[in-house]
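Entry 14. Two folds queued back to back today. First construct below, sequence then structure tokens.
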Amino acid sequence: MSALSRGKIDYHQYINSEEWRSKHPGFLAAANYQCSAFPWCKVGKGAHYRCHHVSYANLGNEKYWWDVLCLSPFAHKHIVHGILSGYKRPSEQDYYPNRSQSLFHSYCRLPVPAKYAVMVFLFALAGYLGAGELGMAAGMLIVVLVLR
């Protein structure tokens, strides 16, 4: 019996099912084999990736961009489920996604040129805040603090 044929879907059973894995190629193609957070990072086709649920509302009937994003393992583990969540699993968070994660998900949905513009702005801000590497580090710290 498939995870989808029952009334309520068990998340862990579904995530480990062939049904879920069979959706990955379509998600990866929709993402043009690029990490939704860092488009210069390739995902799929031999590169590691994570199909990340933005929302669990449509579990079993996910639509790319709205319910699922393709992310690099770094973006998934260290940003979404790391810094932005306080290193808590979604089930441990008061709200999932929280405001920081929702903002990050929105950023991930931007067209690639807009993502580059955001990155240029953030690094320019970092350079404005201080000199050299110290300024960059301070700028990235401010970005992290603002997103939290």
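Second construct, same run, same settings:
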Amino acid sequence: MSVCSSRAFCLYFNIIGFLLSGYAFYVEMKVKEDPTYKPLCDLDENISCTKPFNSTYGKGFGVVDKVLPADHWLNQPNPIYGFGLYSLTTLLSLFRYHFLSKIQFYVVLLANFGSIYLGYILYFVLENLCVVCVAIYATNFLLLIASFAKMRSTRLGTRRMDIREHGQQDRNLRLPTSSNRRDFKKNI
């Protein structure tokens, strides 16, 4: 996959993640404002997005309030962290540097560990299925694949740039085969 196409996929999945986080934040705020509000993602009692959004795990991943005071500025709704993640990875997607691609990959990998944690909480602790949450988890996984492809393609692009800057590769250095054994002896 070329650098341009992997960057495009990264940007595409970032936009999807940003939109899903925006919808999650909208639903969370609308339910706090009007408790009778029923969003589209509430299909029945066991398939509901308002249940996880309004649970203790819907703010600060359910961890921040155990470590810091409940009114601490880090104890934000989870979609706010999603906005931060997708903003950062969008910014990192715009550049072709291998170092920034590695940072992007590891940030998205960390987000996927968060998705696994929240997916476990969603299914086994809250015993619920949130369509928006699962869509965000899937988007994070696809973003991980796109980030990995971008990281690989920028690494290859860096090698190609080094070859262009420092001249052609020494094409005489090859592993010995039956046809070039004499060439190999010359290179020793």
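Quick look at the second one. The two ends are 36 Å apart (CA to CA). The longest helix spans residues 131-166.
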